[in-house]
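Sample intake — DUF3800 domain-containing protein
Collected from: Flavobacterium cupreum
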Amino acid sequence: MKDTVYYYIDESGGIESNSKYFILGCYKTDSPEELRLSIEELKKEILNAPYFAFQRDKFLKNGFHACENHFDIRARFFNLISMLNVRSYILLLKKDSVFFQEKLKPEFTSEEIYNICISKLMSDRLTKTRNEHNVIIFEQFGSKRNNWLENVKSVIGETINNINNRFDIDVSYSVEVHDKSDVNLSVIDYINFIFAQFYENGRTEPRMQENFIIIEPKIALIYKMDRDLFYDKNNRIDIKKY
């Protein structure tokens, strides 16, 4: 029986939105239930802590959603990420770059650009785990779940077919769309959030830098698509500048 790996994928900033950057992130794990239990345990601690009493109603409504959470809840969750069995991968795309404005935007629809980004992010990941069963989970986008599921199934299917042809194998995989009630999606939401804070919002204060340092060992790769630059543990990114 093949081992199973899980990929959780989410975005920050839309292709058509007014954001300056499009951020697409994923993380890989082979222990999603352990993650879920750890996150639920932290949630329980926060709900029972007198310190967070005034945040309780809002937290019950939003759960672990970085842009909505109190900064002390964020600190607790970033600390948890540093202890989880995850490896994350981030694609960054600057939307006022020559690459985006002159090469992507004139030739492709927003959906096509998004699909190109998914393929760029996932191709190497799925190549490396081609001998395992891959469960690929996207966060729900928009109100038409079935349309979104068919789109991501299509782009992942094309990526898998390329791997199959290259290695003459039949990669085992499935594609799912989950809503925000899946607490495991909170991990990639938080990781994307910190890049959005640095690049979209220009927040480089010590607290944000410290949060990044805490989770940096869990980030395996960062790819600046518009500049075709890769960063990893041997070529570390300077998070204070793009």
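Post-analysis note: The beta strands are 4-12, 21-29, 87-94, 133-139, 172-178, 219-224, 229-231.
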